[in-house]
Amino acid sequence: MKNILKFSFLLALSMSLFMVSCGDDDDIIIDPGSGGINVADGYYIAADGQDPSSTAQLTTENVEDDGFTSQGRSGFLGGYVFLAAGSYNIVQITNKEVTSTLGGTTEVITDEGSDCDFNDYTVVSASASASAFNVASGDLYRVTYDQMTGETILYAIDSPGLIGDATPGGWSSDTRLTGSVDATGGSWSMSDVILRNGQWKIRFNCRWSIDRRADSNAGFMASNGYQMFTNFGGAATDLQNGNDGPNIEQTVEGIYTITVDWDPRSGFSVDLNRTGDAPELTFDPNDFSWGIIGDATANGWDSDRNLLYKFENDVHGWYGVITFVDGGSWKIRANDAWDVNYGGASVDMLESNSGTNFMAPGTGAYYLTMSTADEGMTWQLTVSDLGWSVIGMGSPTGSWDMDTDLESQGFDSGIATFTLTGDFTTDQWKFRAGHDWKLNLGENLSPLIQDGGNLSFAEAGTYLITMTFDGANYGATAVKQ
């Protein structure tokens, strides 16, 4: 290569001298050209033995912080890159030259961070002494490189989806788009989607983020690791990574064709094509008083365990903590009657007035939500194994960001009981369900009031907290040990 450049330079010089001898008095400009890799300084993911492409650069990104905000992290880089199957390195380019090459060993991680069937991602332990790492299949990947931990994440993108109270699935489930992607770009779309006034976001594979913290209960300190985003907010015309931007505001209701495009140079964009008016809705939440009934519950098939109603962010929701016994079955029904009820093979596939009962998820306390973001056109039922907890500066964690769980003691004679022994200060605290604020209780210990004021003790100390639920009302006692 150097000999060719030298020959080209000599040829150009001899031609210039020839032109001068012919009487050309203009200034002579000799440009031998510039060698090296013609990309900007920075880090890239590149096929082993090949120069990186400008479309494979990993750029500075923020990561998760407390309160669903974002924060900077020194040396954290990311991007969305199409990778063909093969061997790859993370390379650093400085002044058009490769100044470092990182290979690594790979490990496939499976977690429950996705609400769909996309729980696997690959972690590469990046090292300058390691050989190139393998990418098994060609796809669009979420690629990140964290210099503090020396790890690279590879997460294959199946599809984008819309989620939020403006969308058909509310904040409970994604409206998933279908399409395809290759090295030249990708496009996913869905027609006849009803969008209501409200908020939404785009996320990938039904996942908000990938949590790479050493201790998920220890907050978002840099030394504890990081939580990377797999979603976009901001505005439909200005997508922003994760919590860098707010939820996208939907202000014009209608029926839409929604298209999400990816270009290897310009990234992601979304197009909302309004094709008609949204159907008019008439909905009264007082017509629905949802409860859980079945031989897996404290009242058997005789009476319901009531959920508490709350309207928030244009979502009508009913929330509760239900104690189940393994091996039993249950259903959700409205108004203590069988006129409106749901069953099915799973809570993800609700069947209206179905004869099929849900099976209990196991023995213990479970957080249930029944919600509608489109005023009764569709319903979403969720079940989480997170029951009751306490949180607050006065609680055992001493924080409004970390919960201390109560332990389910089962039920007897229709009364479900939950207990906790822990150290409390005189600062404020509260009960909440599912590590979520939609169902929180306070004001008094007995009765506990939905969305009531914070609780506190006059004296600091170790307390035995006993919480009870009779199917309709919650109460608690606190005994200083």
Number of strands: 40
Strand order of the largest sheet: 1-2-3-8-9-6-5-4
Q: Distance between the terminal alpha carbons, to the nearest Å?
A: 81 Å
CATH class of the domain at 285-384: Mainly Beta
Structural class: mainly beta
Number of helices: 1
CATH fold-type name of the domain at 285-384: Immunoglobulin-like
Rg value: 29 Å
Low-confidence stretches: 1-33
Give the rounded overall mean pLDDT.
Answer: 89
The biggest beta sheet is recorded as: 8 strands, antiparallel, barrel
Shape: globular
Oligomer: single chain
Helix content: under 10%
Topology record:
Blueprint: H1 2-21, E1 42-47, E2 57-65, E3 69-83, E4 86-94, E5 97-110, E6 120-127, E7 133-135, E8 139-146, E9 151-156, E10 160-163, E11 175-176, E12 178-182, E13 185-195, E14 198-204, E15 209-211, E16 227-229, E17 231-235, E18 238-241, E19 248-250, E20 254-263, E21 267-276, E22 290-293, E23 305-306, E24 308-312, E25 315-324, E26 329-334, E27 341-343, E28 351-352, E29 358-359, E30 364-372, E31 380-384, E32 388-392, E33 399-405, E34 407-412, E35 415-424, E36 430-433, E37 436-442, E38 449-450, E39 461-469, E40 474-480
Antiparallel strand pairs: 1-2, 1-4, 2-3, 3-8, 4-5, 4-7, 5-6, 6-9, 8-9, 10-11, 10-14, 12-13, 13-20, 14-17, 14-19, 15-16, 17-18, 20-21, 22-23, 22-26, 24-25, 25-30, 26-27, 26-29, 27-28, 30-31, 32-33, 32-36, 34-35, 35-39, 36-37, 37-38, 39-40
